[in-house]
Amino acid sequence: MAKNAKNQYVDPGWPEVAEGDHAVSELVSNRAGNLSPYGEYTQFPVPVKSLPYVHPHTIVNR
Hints:
This protein is largely without helices or strands. It has no helix or strand.
């Protein structure tokens, strides 16, 4: 049988952080669960006029 050695990870695993910091912010959060990707101070619902979203409109070529 061939020896398939794995020399490195595809994903580098843990990122490098400063001394005393931790790479996983969920462990040092003040609440349990996922943290919001929108930040701590975003109020929902967000006004529609402030969103940078444009709904796509496709014209079918027939």
